[in-house]
């Protein structure tokens, strides 16, 4: 190995670690911005926009994040968040009926409901990853649902990212916040791989 190759290796590691650290910080910003719950899609979109700027070496900081958050929420991002929480409530009610045991084929209906909800969450993450100011959430969600179905490998990566968030929250709830940024980093990688 030449001296030049040895010198290039640490900078590559340091650059990768810097991106990882930025993902963790972005996750904390996403968690704080998503506290009203209905702003979760807008927070994810703002986080993805921030990470795109960092990866393109265009700077970016909390001011740009907040500006993107406002733009994404104002363009019906809050409505997407409210619809997402309504879907969660619907699946929760479905599972309550299944647990009560009075529904024939209830276990199958419950499993289908949970899988459909998981697919919608993955589609929501994918839509947030490609969001740009001025984009329509309806168009983004429609395209994201199609990509979720047509790219099962990428969707599985995002499901694993959601599992990391769940495991982090189970071990120590504050760890779920930085893990959200890692999920958005993974979503950006999945979308870039598709392109």
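-> sequence recovered:
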């Amino acid at each position: 190995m030449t001296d030049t190759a040895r010198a290039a290796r640490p900078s590559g590691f340091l650059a990768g670690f810097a991106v990882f650290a930025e993902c963790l910080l972005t996750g904390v910003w996403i968690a704080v911005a998503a506290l009203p719950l209905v702003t979760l899609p807008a927070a994810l979109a703002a986080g993805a926009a921030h990470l795109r700027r960092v990866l393109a070496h265009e700077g970016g900081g909390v001011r740009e994040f907040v500006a993107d958050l406002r733009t994404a929420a104002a363009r019906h991002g809050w409505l997407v968040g409210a619809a997402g929480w309504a879907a969660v409530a619907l699946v929760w009610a479905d599972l309550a009926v299944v647990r009560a045991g009075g529904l024939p084929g209830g276990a199958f209906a419950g499993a289908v409901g949970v899988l459909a909800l998981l697919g919608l969450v993955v589609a929501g993450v994918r839509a947030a990853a490609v969001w740009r100011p001025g984009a329509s959430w309806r168009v983004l969600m429609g395209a994201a649902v199609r990509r979720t179905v047509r790219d099962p490998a990428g969707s599985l990566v995002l499901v694993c990212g959601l599992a990391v968030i769940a495991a982090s929250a189970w071990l120590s709830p504050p760890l779920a916040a930085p893990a959200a940024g890692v999920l958005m980093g993974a979503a950006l990688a999945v979308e870039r791989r598709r392109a």
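Residues 62-100 form the longest helix (39 residues).
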